[in-house]
Every structure is written in C-alpha cells, then in structure tokens.
Specification:
This protein is α/β, with parallel strands linked by helices. Helix content is 38%, strand content 23%.
C-alpha cells in the first residue's frame, strides 16, 4: 500500500505514544525473544514434527504483521488532542445515536485509540455511519446507505470526548 492510498487515522497523543512504545518493544526485545525461541526449538531436532518450532514461527509471523500495521498506522496518523466537548461529532468522540428506536453508543475513530482494558465498540470515521455523522451536532439526523442497499437514518443524541 502506498502513502497515496493510505487513509490517515486520527489518534490521540496518548494512543500514539502507547502504539509507538509497542512498536519499539516488538521491533527490539520482541524480535530478540522470538528468535531465541525459534533457535531453541530448532535445536530440539526434526522440524517437521516440532510443534514448538511451528508455534514460534507462527507467532513470529503475527508479530511481524503487527509491526507492519503499527508502522503504517503511525506513519499516516493525524495526532491531535482530545476533541472539544462541544457536541459536534468527530473522531475521538463517544457518540450515541438513536437507531431504529434503540440507543447505539460507540467510539468514533480508529480502534487503536481505545485502550486494551476498554470494551467500547469502535466505528471508523471512514465507515458509512461514521462518514454520515462526522461533523454533525447532537440533535441532528443523518442518513447513510447500509451494505444491503437500504438507507438508514439515525439521530445523534449524545457526543462527548473519549476518556481512556
């Protein structure tokens, strides 16, 4: 993926710093640890039937994928402060909408804004719903086309800055 096709993601400074620290750890100590595990498993003998070796190689592949993901995300991220508490929907806000008579509450933005301990749903600001409500105010209605082709209208009932 080239930089021209990559879409920038909004991250709080706190999220950016946390992800940068994770990338630093994975790129240094993480790679060193997994290399030692692979070497130790290789020393155990026949690699075709060595479960420890295959598990370590699989973990290495996942770690390298996470390193690539973090590198791309941090390179293209727009880093900003927590958005103002002004009722205007933007990335970094916890938004509640009335959808079909039920409240739906979620964090608008990149899932990486959310800390590991938080289980709030995250909707991308680039998703159909995210694009429809981005920039709207509490009390506004917005419509978007769902993947099944139906038009869905939601009413924004609350928008406040996310606090990790």
């Amino acid at each position: 993926m080239s930089d021209t096709t990559a879409q920038a993601s909004y991250l709080t400074q706190e999220a950016y710093d946390r992800l940068e620290a994770e990338l630093q750890h994975l790129s240094t100590e993480g790679r060193s640890e997994i290399s030692k595990r692979i070497e130790a498993a290789r020393d155990e003998g026949d690699l075709r039937e060595n479960g420890g070796y295959h598990a370590a190689k699989e973990e290495q592949g996942k770690m390298e994928a996470r390193i690539r993901q973090l590198t791309q995300l941090l390179r293209t991220a727009t880093v900003g402060e927590t958005p103002p508490d002004d009722g205007v929907v933007e990335p970094g806000m916890v938004v509640t909408v009335d959808m079909f008579g039920d409240d739906l509450t979620f964090l608008l933005g990149n899932r990486e804004i959310r800390g590991d301990d938080d289980d709030i749903d995250v909707y991308s600001d680039k998703s159909p719903l995210g694009e429809a409500i981005n920039g709207k105010k509490v009390g506004d209605e917005a419509s978007y086309t769902a993947p099944n082709g139906k038009t869905i209208t939601v009413k924004i009932t609350n928008a406040k800055p996310y606090e990790a």
